[in-house]
Amino acid sequence: MVDITLVNGRVHFVVQGWDKLWALRSQLEIPLDHILSVRADPKPARGWWHGLRLPGTQIPGLLTAGTFYQDGEWVFYDVHDPEATIVLELDHEHYKRLVIEVADPGAAVSLLRAAGVRGTVA
Asked: What's the pTM value of the predicted model, to 2 decimals?
């Protein structure tokens, strides 16, 4: 699971608990204006193939965490429960997309949209 905070125009994504070990990352920090869109969407977290894992952990049906190379782009995952997943599309970042589990997807999406992030990719 990931906690999200906004500080001075930057979004901090803090990986919680053992997921730091599985994802091989403890946090990501992204300028707010590099986030193109955000949406609650369990679909990208489902299934067993998320791309080439470099580095990270994948146990189908239980956990997807870390960096994956998917369709020519880098994607960061940290998901146990697909139903609690939000997806962020990014620009000018190493990762093209973040697929992360949060405690309350609706609240996370609302927080980011209130800060100026669009709901869908233009």
From this structure: 0.91
Phi–psi pair at 11, nearest 5 degrees: -105, 125
Residue 55 tokens read as 């580095």
For 23-62, how does the pLDDT look when each residue is reduced to its tens digit (9 = 90+)?
Answer: 889 999 999 999 999 999 999 888 767 766 778 888 787 8
Residue 11 β-bridge partners: 6, 30
Task: Supply 96's token pair.
Answer: 């093209």
DSSP string computed for 49-112: --SEEEEEEEETTTEEEEEEEETTEEEEEEES-GGGEEEEEESSSS-SEEEEE-S-HHHHHHHH
In a domain, 122, yes or no: no
Tell me, yes or no, whether 119 lies in a domain: no
The domain of 72 spans 2-114
Q: Are strands 63-70 and 73-79 parallel, antiparallel or unpaired?
A: antiparallel
Structural domain count, the chain: 1
Q: Left, alpha or beta for 66 (phi > 0: left; psi -120 to 50: alpha)?
A: left
Task: Report in angstroms the alpha-carbon separations of 122 from 37, 38, 81.
Answer: 8, 12, 28
